[in-house]
Amino acid sequence: MTASSSLTDIFSMAPQAGAAAMPQPSRRSFLKLSGSGLILGLAAPIPDLGGAAQAAAWPAGLATDPFVRIGPDNIVTVIIKHLDKGQGAATGLATLVAEELDAGWTQIRTEFAPSDPIIYKNFAFGVQGVGGSTGLANSYEQYRRAGATARAMILAAAAKEWGVKPSEIAITNGVVSIKSGKTATLGALADAAAKGPVPSDVTLKTPDQFVYIGKKFPRVDSAAKTNGTAKFTIDQQMEGMLVCVIARPPKFGATVASFYATAAEKSPGVVAILQVPQGVAVLAKDTWSAIRGRQALKVSWDESKAEKRSTADLVSEYRALLDKPGAVARKDGDAEAALAKAAKIVTADFEFPYLAHAPMEPLDCVVRYDGSSAEIWTGSQLQTVDHGTACSVLGLKPEAVQLHTVWAGGSFGRRAIADAHFVAEACAVAKAYGKPVPIKVIWTREDDIKGGYYRPIYVHRVRAGLDKDGNVIAWHHRIVGQSIMAGTPFEAMSVKNGIDATSVEGANTLPYAIPNLTVELHTMKVGIPVLWWRSVGATHNAHATEHMIDLLAKEAGQDPVAFRLSLLKDKPRHAGVLKLAADKAGWNTAPPPGTTRGVALHESFRSYVAQIAEVTLKPGGEFKVTRVVSAIDCGVAVNPDVVHAQMEGGIGYGLGAALRGAITLKGGEVEQANFDTYEPLRMSDMPAIESYIVPSAEAPTGVGEPGTPVVLPAVANALFRATGQRTLQLPMNKQKYQSGPLKA
Amino acid sequence: MSISVNINGEKRKLDAAPDTPLLWVLRDELGLTGTKYGCGAALCGACSVHLDGEVVRSCQIQAQDVEGRTVTTIEGADDKVAQAVKAAWNKLDVAQCGYCQSGQIMSAIGLLSQNAKPTNDDIDKAMDGNVCRCATYHRIRAAIHEAAKSV
Lengths: 744, 151
Ligand code: FES
Ligand code: FES
Prior knowledge:
The complex is a heterodimer.
Chain A: H1 3-13, E1 30-33, E2 38-41, H2 52-56, E3 68-70, E4 76-80, H3 89-101, E5 108-112, H4 135-162, E6 170-172, E7 175-177, E8 183-185, H5 186-195, H6 222-226, E9 242-247, E10 255-260, H7 262-266, E11 270-276, E12 279-284, H8 287-295, E13 298-302, H9 311-320, E14 327-332, H10 335-341, E15 344-352, E16 364-369, E17 374-378, H11 383-394, E18 401-405, H12 421-433, E19 439-442, H13 445-450, E20 458-466, E21 472-482, H14 491-494, E22 495-496, E23 499-500, H15 501-504, E24 516-524, H16 538-556, H17 560-566, H18 572-585, E25 595-604, E26 607-617, E27 623-633, H19 640-660, E28 665-666, E29 669-670, E30 688-693, H20 711-723
Parallel strand pairs in A: 4-5, 9-19, 17-18, 21-24, 27-30
Antiparallel strand pairs in A: 1-2, 2-3, 3-4, 6-7, 7-8, 9-12, 10-13, 11-12, 14-24, 15-20, 16-17, 16-19, 20-21, 22-23, 25-26, 26-27, 28-29
Helix pairs in contact in A: 3-4, 4-5, 11-12, 16-20
Chain B: E1 3-7, E2 10-14, H1 22-29, E3 48-51, E4 54-57, E5 70-72, H2 80-91, H3 101-114, H4 120-127, H5 137-150
């Protein structure tokens, strides 16, 4: 059975197809038989968490394939509702189905789901999309249930065929068998299974029955990503396809005043030069011709509404607000009064730069639009937002637009954008061109680095007070920065009483037992588009809080691990990862000669991570991070090896930003352009990493992001212990670290 | 004017303008999309291929420079070292997003072809030009050591 025949079958047979008024067409399980296999879809009875109104406006039956397809060829295809941008979503979701179905791992294939805000919604968002490390957590029950239902139907079919009770049948590694020795494959029973009723309830395995969950087994995408065959958006090639690059304004908020296209039009291979709201698009028969054509284009920009401030201007405006009270995000006791009584006060002001995500595959999107329908291919992280945006730009109904999600070469947040700007501009180009050929819009690396949607600049002040016995009696934390959520459709979800939760997360949830604690926020308006960047608020709050804790431990004359544990008496999961990391790193043993250890701990995305970094100072004030020991408590680790991979990569991503990451503005223009000026982490920077997982039976929580923010304070704390120098300004290459007497 | 070149063991004639970077010839003209664009400026290594057996950044090589020469891309890399490297990459599940990995693998094959038992320092030197934004460096290092066992 081909995918397309099953798509059509399901579409035409879905009972509520076209009934736009039916808000929840898939509340009950449904099953469709196409005469050649079993196709199973389930909508787990999990409550809507917002976005329901939006979802209801979509016509039912737009979704075509549900979650599992078993073909007569014995291939089990798991339909992946989330983008896989390297975090292992495809492997993770396939694991859940394989587990409950008892499929053999080698018969599993994956396919990205079509766009459907109801069937394929993320239960954490209410629409289809992934982010905030929710991918596996929100699917954990849904995909297991899909696997278990398919299993029950296979059992029923085998029971009928062999004249035995379902309870007498076993399925192991994809082989269905009974004691007498009779066996069959899943594929052989799929057709018969599809004819039976869909069970209304199924029992899921208990953890002791798990075959796959919690074990190491191969990723589904390694082979294709090792032999060059994995197809990303940039790799899409179609008959008649044009490639497009866009000249965008050098300052954010500027628009096209006029342009001179004659030279560009004459450039070899250039097909058209078109003005779109985002800039001037150069369409050519291939990528190089498009890039070269753009070089020949002259655009004058209307900068009257553009943001023209420099980084230095912004930072000094932000810093001025550190002296003024902000909106209160948390208030326990009276921090000011306690500070007034403190025996010692430690104050630290922090400064964090704009950061670009710089995924390895720059943004790109393919659109084929014929005036009445469109197809889009892209690494879509928020399918519902991308799909909806395409519809509004093209003036088409959702059912006239097909969105194909393809592998993405990284995202780190960059592909999940409330305004879906890169999809919007590709649609604008397709509409302006007006011919039904596929158009691939690609961003060059320079476009990517200069393109905005950065992790915002933040400035912090933390003041904390110790009593004469070294107890922390007061903590006052003031944060100044742009809101990621304000002005987006996510605003209502995240911004309450002037506090964007993403600005203060991790600061207002400080786990330490401190009786008087205040967290305040000033929200700035700046004309630079900003966005969540791997681990979001934790990217700055983890550093400010965890570096501060070490400054206090030093003041209190205590060991940083013991000091933390003394403040975490009723936080067992925080304490658990801290103890595990300390134990594995040999915290209480002498570090290798010339090496100093630092520790940090942070909870984000409901996972707990502690890390211990070892650093060595080099002549000239440089340093090298030689080893990082990491411990995470993320509930059940569905695939521990994927969890380890996310910790390794997350640490590297965070360390890269910590060492050298900064986007700066001069007169509103971005000063960096490519990997020479926005320097990524490289092999020689990468420490040895040891990752440990706290065994847990709790529901799985995030792993894509929580490893990233902890390394920064862990390294800073090691440097503090080695040199007495604080790390108050990021990135770390802003200062030289020299060993000398400890001074706090 | 057409350019003759041996690509992955096959003789090919290229139509591209002589100054077109080899990267775009491979991808757009020949459909060999395993070789990736990451920076276009010799800063990331995503476009790494072998030219007469040497690791080069294909974004920096012009079509006219490959006349009469031999180019191997990820799709065609299948000698003993290449097989060992690809197997190690698979065994250790190195790839995350995977976008950089063709370039990483081509550089690793280059390294192991010259140096069958590289140290971590050798790996740092040979691989520093290959950026991985997913920071899979830890596993790349391990996979190179793993591949070295069977080279
Ligand atoms: S694309 Fe050639 S080195 Fe980056
Ligand atoms: S695996 Fe994603 S950039 Fe290397």
